[in-house]
């Protein structure tokens, strides 16, 4: 099974919490779908479901 370069640490370092959502106190989960290539690169990332607010 392919593994993403940098793992979850890489992903968490790139998360962006929209200012509007933060100011409104919005919290929740988002669903993201992506492909991890055999080299560990992420391709075709897209949001499946967001929480809104930004």
From TrEMBL:
Listed GO CC annotations: membrane; outer membrane-bounded periplasmic space
GO MF annotation terms: energy transducer activity
GO biological process, one term: siderophore transport
Keywords (A to Z) from UniProt: Membrane, Transmembrane, Transmembrane helix
Localization terms from the record: Membrane
Membrane-related topology note: Single-pass membrane protein
Domain TonB C-terminal: 2-54
Keyword Membrane applies: yes
Stated name of the protein: TonB family C-terminal domain-containing protein
